[in-house]
Write a structure and sequence with these properties.
single chain, alpha+beta, three-stranded antiparallel β-sheet, Deoxyribonuclease I, Chain A, three-stranded mixed β-sheet, 229 residues
């Protein structure tokens, strides 16, 4: 939380000799959002007065996440204010390096791979010997073996697909066509039409899927499980 709070106080401005209850109220409000007053890396004024006899002041503040070791201070940039009477504030936010997955393994619904996956899992389950489960250790072994069967059959039948912003089950040819029309024209009207097509396609897809699950499987668990995928 940052901005010009227009409050002078000795808590953040050493050149100002007074402290007020208004500042305490501000800190209490910030604390309610788990924020605390940020430390300055280069203490200096944030507002520079052009009025003769009026001193510069610190009224631009920054509140950061309480107890954070990474976000614990900000800088003031008086030289970059140009014609403004306020200096800008900045903070360095560390970004953790991560590997962004560009592809994934999937089995498409109603595909030959899905059919083969289900049939092979069922076949392996049928031939699995479960007649000698008389303790928790054997039960754990069986459960782990079931998981291994599913994993192996999954890898056998999956297909690598590239992840894109349109990697959605509901995406259709209508969406692609309307998107291409907009890309060629770059008109606001065609953009609105594309958004409308996407909205209608998504609604039709999800309504049909919910209806299918509700009518055929008759179970709220299957519906909830599908929605959360």
């Amino acid at each position: 939380m940052t901005g010009d709070f227009n409050i002078r106080d000795s808590l953040w401005d050493p050149s100002f000799p007074f402290h007020s209850s208004i500042s305490d109220n501000l800190i209490i409000i910030a604390d309610s959002f788990n924020l605390s007053l940020s430390n300055l890396t280069n203490p200096c004024p944030t507002r520079y007065s052009d009025t003769s006899g009026e001193s510069n002041s610190v009224i631009n503040l920054m509140f950061l996440c309480s107890g954070s070791s990474e976000l614990d201070g900000h800088s003031i940039h008086p030289k970059s204010r140009l014609s403004s009477d306020h200096a800008s504030l900045s903070i360095e936010i560390p970004i953790v390096e991560e590997v962004i997955q560009s592809s994934k393994f999937t089995i498409f619904p109603k595909s030959d791979q899905e059919k083969a996956f289900i049939e092979e899992v069922i076949l392996n389950f049928k031939i699995l010997n479960t007649s000698d489960i008389d303790n928790s250790e054997k039960l754990d072994n069986i459960v782990n073996h079931l998981g291994l069967i599913i994993e192996q059959v999954w890898k056998k039948n999956t297909k690598r697909s590239r992840i894109s912003k349109h990697s959605k089950q509901w995406w259709s040819d209508k969406c692609s066509q309307s998107l291409n029309i907009y890309r060629e024209s770059r008109s606001l009207e065609n953009w609105k039409n594309f958004k409308k097509v996407v909205k209608n396609v998504k609604r039709s897809f999800f309504c049909a899927k919910i209806q299918e699950i509700a009518n055929k499987r008759k179970g709220p668990w299957e519906l909830t499980n599908w929605i959360n995928r």
